[in-house]
Amino acid sequence: MLFPARRLLTAATLLAGLLGGAASAAAAAAAPGATADVERGRYLARIANCVACHTSESGKPFAGGLPIRSAAGTLYSTNITPDATGIGGYTLAEFDRAVRQGVARDGRRLYPAMPYPSYARMRAEDVAALYAYMRAGVAPVSQRNRDAEMRWPYSMRPLLVVWNALYLSGSPVRTDAAKGAEWNRGAYLVQGVAHCGACHTPRGWLYAEKGLDERSKRFLSGTSVEGWSATNLTGDQVTGLGAWSRAEIAEFLRTGRNAHATSFGPMSTVIATATQYMAPADLDAVAVYLKSLSGARGETEPFRHDPSTAPRLLQGRFDSPGARQYSQFCMPCHGADGKGFARVFPPLAGNPTVADPDPASLVNLLLNGAVTARVDTAPTDYHMPGYGWTLDNQELANVLTFIRGSWGNRAAPVGEAAVAARRRELEAAR
Question: Could you say which residues form the signal peptide (predicted)?
Fold first, then answer.
């Protein structure tokens, strides 16, 4: 996949309309009186989750070097600290052009693993605040950028001129006065700054997102990203957010857990480094916007729990393949009734990830385990152990099939081949 969940952010050269005021804006950003801009930029950088992509494992914040692997090759995130090897010599104009147009200072085209198609919809004043923070609020680090290792023809950056002509829109986020200020703020955050569609919207054969806003049924309808199934965020009752209230959506983004689900994998990182820091008003605005989205899959009937599985498990009647392994490895936390323990061990009954047509995330969880988001609002994070070391591929497939077909869940079985293929991929990546 050409555009993985993690993104690159480098500097470059600005929109023509901003060129005239670039020098004075840059000077203002560096002045002592620009504290408000720096703090606003700090907040925006957190929402955009810049640190997650621009910090390598054990590396210094924003110094880059994180490998971003895809089917087209490997990219390395760039140094965006105010050092000469980062953005130290860049003007606001150059920074803006990189963020919103994907064109680097030397004219190189940035790969859209950096979500500049989403950032293109950000307001100029927000990009300026982000620049002020990067210049005055981030410690400089001397670390040169690594060249991308892309296979042909993806190594030919000039081809991105054509891609941008086809798919890059500079149109601002659409506003709708009739829907109120909260909805419009949520639309701006979801579509632009937080770039939720970069992970949760499916892509076409040229890897562009199939929908940019609520007018497209494909927008935020869920997809596969870096071997994980990114959840459907539309109003579908079973695999989407139809059963979640506004308060529950905000709670999940703030804490990584609610009555319906607990975070795992890449989403735990997003919550830990970004959404937990969102202002309450912004969290509610995001929730208002997401709750307005119609279901992409036509699921209008809510999930109904079937209690018949629990007695069989409690009586030791392991009639179905996978039931015995579930009882041994899963039931102590998730219960015989599949309801788990709210906000600690997530329910499996009616869980959108369990019901997802793509079982990729479930396969990852059983193979390698997971950890909940580390947030300031919780005393600790919780670890789910992986069972790839003790269960073979067929046993893991049986457990997943049992979970996806019990307590009222109606998801398709998981085959042994799918588990085996993912195990090989994970082993090759080590």
Answer: 1-25
Q: Which helix (H) or strand (E) holds 223?
A: strand 223-225
pLDDT of residue 72: 83
The CATH number assigned to the domain with range 177-291 reads: 1.10.760
Name every residue whose Cβ is closer than 8 Å to that of residue 18 and which is 6 or more positions away in sequence. Answer: 25, 92, 93, 96, 124
Contacts of 217 (CB under 8 A, 6+ apart): 211, 294, 296
Helices (DSSP H) in 245-301: which residue ranges?
246-255, 265-273, 280-291
pLDDT tens by residue, 231-286: 999 999 999 999 999 999 999 999 999 999 999 999 999 999 999 999 999 999 99
Annotated binding site for heme c: 50, 53-54, 196, 199-200, 330, 333-334
Q: Do the domains spanning 177-291 and 309-429 agree at the CATH topology level?
A: yes
Q: Which residues of 187-209 are buried (b: 16+ CB within 10 A; e: fewer)?
A: bbbbbbbbbbbbbbbbbeeebbb
Binding site feature residues: 50, 53-54, 196, 199-200, 330, 333-334
Q: Residues in the chain with pLDDT < 50?
A: 1-30, 32-33
Tell me, what amino acid is at 303? Answer: F
Structure-token match 């086809």, residue found = 166
- pLDDT given for residue 34 in this prediction: 67
Structural tokens at position 164: 């941008």
CATH architecture of 309-429: Orthogonal Bundle (1.10)
pLDDT digits (tens, 9 = 90+) for 54-70: 999 889 999 999 998 87
SS3 annotation, 313-330: HHCCCCCCCCHHHHHHHH
Q: Where are the domains of the chain?
A: 16-167, 177-291, 309-429
